[in-house]
Amino acid sequence: MNLLPKENDTSLDALFASARVVHRRNFLTAGAAALAATCAASGSALARAPQAAASDTVTDQDRAYMTQAIDMMRKAGVVDKTGGPFGAVVVLNGDMLSSSGNSVLRDNDPSAHAEVNAIRAACKKIASPHIKGATLFSSCEPCPMCYATAYWARVGKIYYAAAWTDYADLFDDSNISADMKRPYAQRTVPVAQLMRGDAQKVWLEYRKMSDRTRY
Fold it and tell me: Catalytic pick from 7, 115, 141, 205?
């Protein structure tokens, strides 16, 4: 998909002028394909979320995997203090590929969230950037970064335990959602376009490659 703005656009702001961002609960419930509809009726989407979750068939094995994710949560945040209290487990075809806790503080890595760590380990284990059809068990609702990582990894389903409202006084991603609605120049981390033409030349080269890859 070509997401570049038209030639007469001077910045990428126009691309996101009509974008709306919702809380993760709506996003996880409705899915990326229904994002626009969820934004237009966020209130009704929230009301439907518990009903949608209730329709899932949860097994004792699912609960066992979630128990392990919560154990990793406590280990990371309370016992070892490697990062915040977050844990995750990745399961594919009935086999647990990986489990991990948050290690942001230990690794000095802002991307070392439990879900990202677990997905990285799972992908390395099967030697593929994709774990299509895998289930991610997360002790807490995935943040936008973790959801995006699951999306790119082709995760098939996400279960989470604690809702973001359970720890909003300590970790709250709603500020990120609000920030992303602002024009680039007004964001907490300002974004500006530079040397677009040079980058487009590389895209032209890439398109001509017979062995180019997509993921």
Answer: 115
